[in-house]
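If it is no trouble, can you show me the amino acids of a protein and the C-alpha cells describing how it folds?
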Amino acid sequence: MVRHLRLIRQSLLSLKHTGNTPIGHLGRTIDQRLAVQVFPAGTIDGTLFMGVRVDVHLQSGVTAESMEHSRARFYKSPDHEGRVVLVLGGGNVNGIPSMDVLSKMFNEGKACILKMNPVNAYLGPFLEEAFAEAIRQNFLAIVYGGAGEGAYLANHRDVDEVHLTGSDRTFDQIVWGPPGPERETRKAQGRPVLQKPVTAELGNVSPVIVVPGRYSAKELAYQAEDVAAGLTCNASFDCNANKVLIMPKGWQQREAFLAALEGALSKAAPRQAYYPGAHDRWRAYSKGRSSIHQFGTESAEVLPWTLVRDLDANDREERAFVSESFCPILFETQIGSADPVEFLDRAVTFANDRLWGTLSAGLVVHPKTSKDPMLGAAVDRAITKLRYGAVCVNAWAGYLFAFVTPPWGAYPGSSSADIQSGSGWVHNTPMLEGIEKAVLRHPITAMPKPAYFPSHRSAHVLMPRMTALEENSRWMRVPGVMAAAMQA
C-alpha cells in the first residue's frame, strides 16, 4: 500500500511535468502486439529484484502512438464530472481494500464508499486514520456491515457503480439476484437486476505449468518451494493461490520435483485457517482422494497443507478443475508428454478450457529452454495464448500483485453472465489502457530468496525495512533491506 501511494505520486508528478506517466521500454510480443515494460520501476527495483521484469501486453490494434495518447486518460480528457463508486473490500489480503480505493480514486477520478468486509473490519479505524484527509474532503467514506448493507449501497441511487473483490457467487447475487430459475432467465435474456457498471476481481483456479527440462537439484528445490509458497502464503486464502500443478507425462524429474514440493510443505509452519467456511471446503475437496498427502493435522484452528496427486485430466466432473477451493489444497495432474513443445500446447489448452477462472497462471521454465530458438518460441506462444490477466514465469503471481505498476485483474472478455475472474483493472500506476495481460519473468533461482517463501527466516525484519524504503525510495535504506534479506 505504501508502494502504491508512492508510485501514484510519481505518476501524478510526471503528468504535471511531462504530460504523461512514466513507463519503460516498448517491445513486441511474438504475435507482434505492443508490450510495455512497467517493472523495474526504477534503479532500486532493479537492484533488489535483479533479473525480474514485467511487461504489459496490450490488445491487438493498440499502437505506440495510441498508447501514448490514451494512458492516464482521465487526466487528459475526463469522461465524467464526478462519480461515486462503491468498493466492496476483500476480506483476505488486508491491503486490497485500500489499493482498490486508490485505483478508483486516482486512476479513474472517482469518489469512493469503502464497505469493509466483516472478516477484516477491524482494519477500518486504522484506514479512517490513514485516509483522514480524503474523508474530510468527502472523496472517501468508510462504512461497515454485511451482505445486507452491501446490497443496500449497491442499489442506492447515489452510487454510480460498484467494484467488488470477492467471489463470483457474490457478483451474481449483486448483479443477477438470488440463485434460482428467475436468475437463469434474467441471464439468458440479459436483464441484470443491477443496472450499473460493475468491475470485479473474483478469484481463480490458478495453474502452474511445469515445462520439462533438465533442472539441477538446486533449481528443482527453489521452484518447488515457490509453488509451495503460492499455496501457503496467507494460509492459501488468496485469489491467486496455486491450485493445479500441471506436469508433463513421462518427465523423468517429476518424482524429484514432487518430493521437493512435499519437503517444502512439510517444513512450512501451520497458519490459522481464519477464512469462513475453510474447514468445510477442505473436507469437500479432499474427501475420497486416493493419492492424498497431508502435512500437519486438522484442528479447530488450522488445516494441513495438502497435496493431491494424479488427478485424471480427462475427468470432466473433477471439482478441483471447475471451482475454487479457497483452502490449503493443491492438485497435481499429468498431460501430454515430455516433449516441451507438445506439452506446452496441451497444457495451455487444458488451462484455458478446463480450469475455471482467468486471473493468474504460472510457468516453470528452465533458462536453457527459454534460450533455445525453437523451445523459446514455444514458451512465448504459450504466454501469448494463456487467457489469464497475469502470467508469471518462475515466480508466484503474488510478486506481480505487490509490484503495483503492473495492472491486476482478469483476462478481458468475460461476460457478466459468465464473469469468471471478473473485469477491469486495479493497481496499474502507469494508467495504461487497452490491456490484455501482465507478464512477469523471473530467474530460475534468486538470492536472496523471496520474502513469501515459507522457509524465510527474516521476513519480520525485512518487511518493515522494505516499507520504510518504499515510502520515499532512497538509496540510504537499501543496505538495511539487503542485510535483512540476506539473513533469510
